Amino acid sequence: MAHLPDDVLTRPAPLGARLVALGFLDDAVSAQPRLADPDDEEALHDFRVALRRLRSAVKSYRAHLHGSVAKKDRRALRSLAAATNRNRDAEVLVAWIRERIRRLALRERVGATWLAERLETRREEESQKATERVRQDFPALERRLRRGLGAYRVTLGEGEGTPKPAFDAAAAGATRDASEGLSDRLGAVESEQDAAAAHRARIGAKRLRYVLEPFQGRVPDGAQLVQSLKGLQDLLGEFNEMHILATEIAAAVETAAAERARRVHDLTVGGAPEQALRAAQRQRDERPGLRALASLMAARRRELFKTFDSEWLGGRAQPFLARIADAADALERKPATPESAAPARAPRRRRPASRRRKPRPPKARRPA
C-alpha cells in the first residue's frame, strides 16, 4: 500500500479514513496497466486484492466517509471484484490438480488431465472477460471515487469547543468491530460440513487483516498478528477451494458420462461393429481419474479442518483475539502533546557574588 503519513492516526478521522482508502485506490490504479501484459500472471491478482482492500476500507470506515462513496459506486466495486474472482478460482483449482497428477495411476491421469484442461479453458475465458470488464468500467469508477474521497466538508463554528475525534479512535474501533465479527464467525463453524460458515469466517479474517495491515508497524507484534491472520485466511481459503472442487468434480462426472454416452451413440447410429463399440467404451474413461481426485480432495479437506479445529475453534482463538484487543488499545493511545512532551525548564543558575554585576549609580539629573 502507498505510504501513509507518520501522523495519520492523529489527524481527523474523516481525513485519515480517506487517506487509507485513497492508498488502496492508488494500488488498484498501479496494477491496472499491467493487465495489458499477457506475461504478467500476477497483474489481475494484484488488482483484485487492491480492490478487495478498498472495499474493506470503505465498509470499515463508512461512518467517516459519509457522502464520499455513492451507493452505486459501492455496488460497482462489488460487481467488479466478483468479475475477477471467477478467474482466480479456476486458476487455483488447475494448479491444485496439476500438482497431484503425478501421484495418480496412468488410467487415472486421463480424467484428472481432462478436468484440468476444462478448468484451464474456463480460466482463460474468465481472465479475458475480467480484463475487458476492468478496462471498460474501472477508469470512470476510479475518477468518481477519487473525486469523492479527495475532499470532505467541514462547517466552521459547528460544535465549537467539542473535541473532534482523531483517526486513531476510528482505526481502533474498526479493529475491534472486525475482531468481534471474526469471533462470531469462528463460533458458527462446528463441523467439516459447515463450508459456508467457514467461508464467512475467512472473509472475517480477511477484513480484520486489511484493517490492521496499514498500521502493523505501529502496534506491538503487529506484523506477527497480520501474518497469523494471513495464515488463517490461507487455511480457510484452501478449505473453501476443496468445497468448490467437490462441486466441479460432481459436475464433471455428469458431463463425462454424457460425452461418453454420446460417443457410443454416434458409433451405434453410424453402424459401427460391436467390437468398435466395446473399444469405445474402454477408451478414455474419465471416471477413475475423477474418483481419484475426489478421494484426494476429501482427504485434504479433512486435514485442513483438523488443523483449523485444533488452532482456532473451541475457544482457542481467544488468546489471539486478546492480542488484537491490545493492538486496538495501542492504536488509540494519544501521543504526548507538545506541552507535555517538552522537557521541564531548568532553574536559572545564580552567578557567584563576585561575578554579579554591580548596580550602576543613578545618573545626575540636569538642572531645568
Question: What can you see in these coordinates?
Answer:
By secondary structure, this protein is mostly helical. The chain has two domains: 12-149, CHAD domain (Alpha solenoid); 166-332. The chain has eleven helices and no strands. The protein has helices at residues 13-31, 43-60, 71-100, 106-149, 167-187, 195-212, 222-269, 274-282, 287-312, 318-332, 338-341. The termini are far apart.
Summed up, the helix count is 11
Succession of helices and strands = HHHHHHHHHHH
Mean pLDDT: 85
Tell me the structural class. Answer: mainly alpha
Cα distance, first to last residue?
A: 82 Å
Counted up, domains total: 2
**In total, how many beta strands?**
0
